[in-house]
Design goal:
390 residues, alpha+beta, Anthranilate synthase, eleven-stranded antiparallel sheet, globular, binds ligand ISC, IsoChor_synthase, isochorismate synthase
Length: 390
């Protein structure tokens, strides 16, 4: 790896990536201050099932369900920005690196992004459509076709004239210190930003594997110790826990540490969360990250339980393509390890509009109107950021 001694800002790097038609990912891990970024110089982004242990450094961006249109993507870290320095990978293609550095030095002024294509993918469900789907889901659960299903929707809103992706990212980082903050922009694919509260799979520098069961939602109270949870949310979260435990069981892994459920804050909301950790050095299970990722996604926090009937219900009744919402994203084999988060509390950027995404866990005790309200509250996480631009 080589280090360019000139001082660049995150904005310089993002703008150069957009001007040069490069894929770029920017992220900030929870409870840290450093905003990191990586840029891929080549044009091949599609990848198969992520293999975490053997992957080069980069950033995965994977959909809820893979299809021809929504593939697993990988932004290889040809260039890495750690908040101060720009570092080049030893195998970065020399010619493309040269052109990129020229673009950087020219100081691009344009605050744009690789827009998502404005197609039928972005049809939005009406309030009545969502409520009808929830009503059908409750009936299907009562008929014992499944125990839980997560139904979601999207909503298009006009982007403010002054909108800037890097300014929005910085606002997210300041507003949501406990969230995983991200901005991903890929030519021909689109641009997504979000503030996720949910780890899917993470492996830190000490080789500690971490996943979590996050579910149950209510608006935040000042003191989390005062939070009172209804039976509905307790059961909803317990199902996610049960699902994670079933994945450990499939891998015959018994040596995990479980803490929770406890109440956690996520922006304007609170959730119930149970953390599961495994010391990979103790269990001698080097592929646990890859194996769990394959088993976990999509978890019952975004799909349902049992997984298959819940998935079929979603595909039949949601009425739109989730695309990369409720997929997963994050850096792999970086200086802080591998950190894949569920793509929640997010939005997709078209040229002049943002598409906000949110879902809610439906159980037999769900009230359709309340579930609609819950998706409104979840969309507030991104609305809040857009409102900063007036
Ligand atoms: C599906 C979403 O949230 C999940 C994560 C936490 C709580 C959830 C819930 O209470 O329904 C969802 O399972 C979303 O934010 O779009």
């Amino acid at each position: 790896m080589g280090t360019d001694t000139r001082v660049y800002t995150l904005q310089d790097i993002f703008r150069a990536a957009i001007a040069g038609q490069k894929a770029v990912a920017v992220w900030r891990l929870p409870n840290t201050d450093t905003v990191q970024a990586c840029v891929q110089l080549g044009k091949q982004f599609t990848t198969g099932q992520p293999q975490l242990e053997t992957s080069p450094f980069g950033f995965f961006f994977c959909p809820f369900q893979t299809s021809r249109q929504n593939q697993n993507l990988f932004i290889k870290g040809d260039l890495y920005f750690d908040g101060d320095d720009l570092v080049t990978a030893a195998d970065a293609p020399a010619q493309q690196l040269d052109s990129f550095l020229k673009l950087l030095q020219q100081e691009q002024q344009n605050d744009s992004w690789h827009p998502s294509a404005d197609d039928e993918n972005h049809t939005c469900q009406t309030e009545q459509g969502f409520i009808d789907a929830v009503t059908k889901a409750v009936a299907a659960i009562q008929a014992e076709e499944m125990e839980k299903v997560v139904l979601s929707r999207n909503n298009r809103i006009q982007l403010p004239d002054q909108f800037s992706p890097i300014a929005a990212l910085k606002s997210m980082a300041a507003a949501y210190p406990r969230a995983f903050i991200s901005l991903v922009s890929i030519p021909g694919v689109g641009t997504w930003m979000g503030a996720s509260p949910e780890i899917l799979v993470s492996i830190n520098e000490q080789q500690v594997f971490h996943t979590m069961a996050l579910a149950g939602t209510q608006t935040a109270v000042e003191n989390v110790a005062d939070a009172i949870w209804r039976q509905k949310e307790i059961e909803e979260q317990a199902m996610v826990e049960r699902y994670i435990l079933s994945c450990f069981k499939k891998l015959r892994l018994r040596d995990y540490n479980e803490v929770g459920p406890r109440t956690v804050i996520a922006g304007n909301l609170m959730h119930l969360r149970t953390d599961f950790k495994v010391n990979l050095r103790d269990v001698h299970f080097p592929t646990l990250g890859t194996d769990m990722l394959e088993l976990l996604h999509p978890t019952s926090a975004v799909c349902g339980l049992p997984k298959e009937p819940a998935l079929q219900f979603i595909l039949a009744h949601e009425g739109y393509n989730r695309s990369y919402y409720s997929g997963y994203l994050g850096p792999v084999n970086g200086s802080n390890g591998t950190h894949l988060y569920v793509n929640l509390r997010c939005m997709e950027l078209l040229e002049h509009e943002a598409i906000l995404y949110a879902g809610a866990g439906i159980t037999e005790a769900s009230d359709p109107q309340k579930e609609w309200q819950e998706t409104q509250h979840k969309m507030q996480t991104m609305r809040e950021i857009l409102s900063i631009f007036g």
